[in-house]
Amino acid sequence: MNKVKKSAALLLSASMAFTLVSACGKAKEGASADSKQGQTDEKPYKLVFMTTGDQAAANLKGNDRIIAEINKRLGIELVLKIVPEGSYDKVNVAMATGDYPDVLTINYPTNSLSQWINEGIVVPINDYLKDMPTVKKKLESSLSWTAVNGKYYGYPFIEERSNMNIVYRADWLEKLGLKPPQTLDEFYETLKAIATKDPDGNGKNDTFGLTSAKSGSNVPTFDFIFYANGMPNGDWALDEKGSVIPKFEHPAFKRGMTYLKKLWDEKLIEPEYMLNDTQMKEQKFYQGKVGFMDAALFRHVNRLETSLQKVNPSGKLGFTAPPAGQDGKRGMSATPKSGLFTAITKGSKNPEKAAKFIEFMLSKEGRELLELGFEGVHYTKQGDKITYNEEERAKDSFASNGWAHPLAWGSVVWPLTENYLPQTEPQADRAKDSVRLATENMKPNLVNVTTKAETEFNGVVNELYYQYFTNMMIGKMDVDTGIAELGKKWREQGGSKILEEVNAAYKEKK
User: Fold this and answer.
1) pLDDT on residue 180
2) Residue 344 is inside which H or E element, if any?
3) I need a labelling partner for 97 at 20 to 30 A (CA). Which of 116, 124, 280, 374 fits?
4) What are phi and psi of 157, to 5 degrees?
């Protein structure tokens, strides 16, 4: 073993947090009429799948009947290497050892993935698409822009829906005699009322109107303010000559920044929001420190309201569209360009089996198995009504209350994709309404693709953006000076190269 691989192996053993499962349990006899599909007399091919988990998923156990059923249908012996949700660095470390899995799920787009494509570590799937009808349809219908030089190197899962909304304390608004704000002016007045009129009734002036966390991958902090001020796209803007420029150089950014500074100066924004992660942000909402926040809803609607009511029994969760500007324009989040990427590596000795496994994970047949299990064992159905057998489901690691098997959570796609909710979901109608509202308020992108320069420099230029964003909002520099300095430094630290490639992609698109 060379020094690089030896070092990587040592690092892997020291820091890796994989869950390894080799599930060879016996599938339920006669559980499915389709279970004999893919059976042969051959020795099953040992297929290694390295993937990310999801915090909402249960931990896999041995002798899992769902995995055994997948094995039976596909003629494989599935070995899973699962890292905690978002721990992509652990996947990178594992790949550095050169011990490649058959199938890999990683975040997209990244420098690592681009490198693996360039070095041939992940292989094109074009030759296997004939056996991947679900994947083929998705790629050719809406994801053709993800091809690299005409070749597809895997399935890029990019969510087409959104669940990001403006969330508020509905009980506070009722107490103050206010309706959910629909415009920027109403939003300001509502935040001011929360900060000054003691909505929690404790006799203290200790509540703030709005909080957030530093930034999510697709919903940068307070971007809904810029959309209300006329920001037309989720990714880039155009100057008067029709060339692509960064969004912070669009006039809407200055208007939005001026509005945010006003909120900050009047102490309507929670002053420590920049230290928040999602959990801290939510805790401040439950504890009555803030009245509004941005939040991912869908399956979280009931969780957030239940958590709120544990602290404040009379608390009510509300959600609404982001406020509109004077011209009626509004938006909450950019249409995604990023997500997960599931690929076959050069380590696979049977790429045809690997391709069929990815197809199964996305197919209607596969999703039903992972969401429901075996009819008559994990659930029963009478008409449209499903009754979940939680005792049997727990044996095969299904999440409680009708939720799905671990392999349905964030390994290739997420439940939001098909608006999947179990029939046991306490607030299913509100959950689905939150997705409708959030999706209606997604902003389109000017350029679909993510360029190589963006992948390379985004970490640096985004951090620079947030530094200047914060300084302008809290008054460390005036807005005009901040925008001018940011534009100069942004270009010096990789932005010029980004703009060169993005402008080329925009012209090609036109």
Assistant:
1) 98
2) strand 339-344
3) 124
4) -85, 110
Question: Percentages helix, strand, coil for the chain, rounded to the nearest 5?
Answer: 45, 15, 40
Tokens of 7: 């070092």
β pairing state of 442-443 and 333-334: parallel
Q: What does the CA dihedral 268, 270, 272, 278 come to, rounded to 10 degrees? A: -140
- Residue in 169, 164, 301, 170 with CA at minimum distance from that of residue 222: 164
- What does the alpha-carbon distance between residue 382 and residue 365 come to, in Å, rounded to a whole number? 20
Helix (H) or strand (E) holding 159: none
Q: How far is CA 274 from the centre of its chain?
A: 20
> In angstroms, rounded to a whole number, what is the distance separating the alpha carbons of residues 282 and 274?
14
Q: What is the DSSP string of 42-105?
A: SPPEEEEEEEE--TTSPPP-SS-HHHHHHHHHHTEEEEEEEEPTT-HHHHHHHHHTT---SEEE
Cβ of 125: how many Cβ atoms within 10 Å? 25
Distances (CA, A) of 282 to 204, 211, 223, 406, 449: 21, 9, 19, 25, 33
In the 8-state DSSP scheme, what is residue 160?
S
The structure tokens listed for 187 are 């939003």
Asked whether the beta carbons of 458 and 493 are under 8 A apart, the reply is: no
What single letter denotes the amino acid at residue 148? V
pTM reported for the whole predicted model: 0.84
Position 20 scores a pLDDT of 56
- Point out the residues of the chain with pLDDT beneath 70: 1-42, 215-220, 415
Concatenated DSSP letters of 13-42: HHH--PEEEE--PPPPTTS-TTTTTT--SS
Token match 């496994």: residue? Answer: 357
* Residue found by looking up tokens 């990427």 in the block: 341
Look up residue 452 and give its two tokens: 């190589």
Residues 6+ apart with CB under 8 A from 507: none
Beta bridge partners of 169: 317
Query: DSSP string spanning 180-195?
Result: PP-BHHHHHHHHHHHH
Give the integer Cα–Cα distance in Å for 195 and 207.
Answer: 5
Identify residue 118 by its one-letter amino acid code: N
pLDDT value of position 22: 52
Q: What angle do CA 444, 448, 452 make, to 5 degrees?
A: 140
Taking Cα atoms as reference points, which of 59, 147, 61 lies closest to residue 109?
A: 147
Tally DSSP H helices, then E strands, for the chain. Answer: 18, 16
Residue 212 near residue 293, CB atoms below 8 Å? yes
At 290, is the secondary structure helix, strand, or coil? strand
